[in-house]
Design goal:
It is built from 9 helices and no strands. The longest helix has 30 residues, at 6-35. The protein is mostly helical. The protein has helices at residues 6-35, 38-45, 49-55, 59-76, 87-103, 106-114, 120-147, 156-176, 188-201.
Length: 216
């Protein structure tokens, strides 16, 4: 009888957890958290129902890990690019990576929003996991550029949080809730261009470098 090493067992366990979480994300996206059952998740994963409980004690724990993976994926998407890049290019990459990573899960996020009683603690954890890495990355960027004399001194935590909320508002309106009838006529890059322009140059009547895209 072949015995698996501890590393091999851990790898197999992680693969199985990933298999369950991918199935759960698909089921939650279709039926919502409350409408989904462990049996349906097991069926989507191609596993016996009892196998699910070997890895997750409850449906709530499955949801917790699904939310964690979505948030971690969004954070990892921001890792490309360095603060030393030209400002507009850096900000576009930062915003676009977050839009791309979260918009893939629009159906799941839409149902989660509609289920208003969906575990307040988990909602708060999910928001924190989305917010904190973005704000920290944005703060480092602002602090670096202030130290270099490129930006005026500002409350970096507040500005980074405002930018995060502006970005999340776009994702919710454009991709999750899809409530803006005019949104389909504009690409994400148009909105990102407008956000970058506002962040870098504001609305004051001062000369701005050529290049930032403005909404028509």
């Amino acid at each position: 009888m072949v015995r698996l090493s501890e590393a091999a067992r851990d790898e197999r366990s992680e693969e199985r957890r990933g298999q369950i979480l991918r199935a759960a994300l698909a089921v939650f996206s279709h039926k919502g958290f409350h409408g989904a059952t462990i049996r349906e998740i097991a069926s989507a994963a191609g596993l016996a129902e009892g196998t699910i409980y070997l890895y997750f004690p409850s449906k709530q724990e499955i949801l917790r890990d699904v939310l964690t993976r979505i948030a971690d994926e969004a954070s990892q998407a921001m890792e490309g690019g360095g603060i030393g890049e030209e400002d507009e290019r850096f900000l576009r990459a930062l915003l676009e990576s977050r839009i791309t990573s979260l918009s893939k899960h629009a159906a799941f996020l839409r149902l989660s929003v509609h289920e208003a009683d969906l575990h307040e603690t988990l909602r708060q954890e999910f928001y924190a996991r989305l917010c904190e890495p973005f704000v920290a990355r944005f703060e480092r960027y602002l602090e670096t550029r202030i130290a270099q004399g490129a930006f005026r001194p500002v409350n970096t935590a507040l500005i980074a949080t405002v930018c995060f909320r502006m970005l999340m508002s776009h994702i919710m309106v454009q991709h999750v809730l899809a409530v803006d009838a005019s949104a389909a006529r504009r690409a994400d890059e148009d909105y990102v261009g407008a956000m970058v322009s506002l962040i870098l140059y504001g609305l004051t009547a001062r000369p701005a470098p050529a290049g930032p895209r403005e909404l028509p």
